[in-house]
Design a protein that fits this description.
The protein is built from 5 helices and 6 strands. It is α+β, with helices and mostly antiparallel strands. It has 2 domains: 102 residues, Zincin-like; 39 residues, no CATH class. Strands 1-3-2 form a 3-stranded mixed sheet. Strands 5-4-6 form a 3-stranded antiparallel sheet. A hairpin with a 4-residue loop joins strand 4 and strand 5. The longest helix has 22 residues. The radius of gyration is 23 Å and the shape is elongated. The two termini are 24 Å apart. 23% of the residues are buried. The protein binds zinc ion (2 copies). The site of one zinc ion has 4 residues, from helix 3.
Length: 171
């Protein structure tokens, strides 16, 4: 699954929300909040704030597929949620990621209900694990793609634990 870059209009909305969250926290706490670098990700996560502890640089990863379908949710919850991680780091240092400090930023500074996870529909981005059907002398075996590839390349064989026959691919 390749990472899809966001539409420019959407990126503008997301970035201005980031800036709004930054300014809000600066006004609330009276400290300077850095602007994170924005990058993109896939998967079932809405977003992720990554802090490089050595360089102290912050990177906000946005799930563009989910953001396309849930822009409203991103602007109201996902971006503040991730920005609250950055704010927490700046103010409290390296504390628990969804601990009371982060919750305090969410409710106190942003006026939002601190919720660890999002409830967006991830069916589109969830990786479906394909299984491959094999047979032995007694039953059907569902084999993962990694194992199936190894078997097809002749790198391994699998024996049934019950009938002790080598399983054969049936498609
Ligand atoms: Zn979080
Ligand atoms: Zn068997």
């Amino acid at each position: 699954m390749s990472v899809r870059p966001p539409r420019p209009e959407m990126l503008i909305q997301l970035v201005s929300k980031v800036m709004e969250c930054k300014t809000k926290a600066e006004d609330y706490y009276g400290v300077e909040i850095p602007v994170p670098k924005v990058s993109y990700m896939t998967g079932a996560c809405g977003g992720m704030m990554v802090t490089d502890l050595l360089s102290n640089e912050h990177e906000l990863r946005i799930n563009t597929v989910l953001a396309e379908d849930n822009l409203e949710e991103y602007l109201t919850n996902v971006i503040p949620h991730e920005m609250a991680h950055l704010v927490t780091h700046v103010i409290y240092g390296n504390v628990q990621s969804h601990g009371r400090e982060w919750k305090g930023v969410m409710s106190g500074c942003y006026g939002l209900r601190p919720s660890r996870t999002h409830n967006m529909d991830v069916s589109k981005v969830k990786r479906t694990t394909r299984k491959h059907r094999y047979m032995c002398g007694c039953r059907e075996h569902m084999i993962s793609t990694v194992m199936h590839n190894k078997i097809s390349r002749g790198q391994t064989t699998r024996m049934c634990r019950h009938c002790r026959m080598i399983i054969q691919y049936v498609g």
